[in-house]
Amino acid sequence: MEIKLIENKTLKSPIITIECKEADEKILDMIHMIKSIDAKGKRIVGIKGNDTYCIEPEDVLYIESLERKTFCYTAKSVYETELKLYELEDFPRVDFMRVSKSCVVNLNRIKSIRPDFGGKILATMQNGEKLYVSRQYANKLKIKLGIGGNK
Fold this sequence. Notes:
Blueprint: H1 25-36, E1 44-48, E2 51-55, E3 60-66, E4 69-74, E5 78-81, H2 85-89, E6 96-100, E7 103-106, E8 110-115, E9 121-125, E10 130-133, H3 135-145
Antiparallel strand pairs: 1-2, 3-4, 3-7, 4-5, 6-7, 8-9, 9-10
């Protein structure tokens, strides 16, 4: 894949053009990701009922994938988003981290952590909800939170 950036001082707003032989799933995912982020790249688009909301990423406690659907959990509500976990994992401005195969947490919204059986960690979010951090991600979480871990 080749990426070109062309600066044009005469444009009033950016134009994104994707040229490809065929619009495969990867291309469609990129287009969807671009559309799902507002013009400033600051919000997550979420759906609740028949309404569409712009969610501030900082308000998201965690994101979970269930039955091929992705849900963003805030302190007040749950929203479905068409973004995939891997897209949200690297979302700008927020310290999201994958903690299991199906869950990404906002590190700034973790209230406390404690060790659990089998090398797992039990993380308590600011709203009191408890999430398991799999053994695979436990050490990385400790390092990111600045509380040790094996480097």
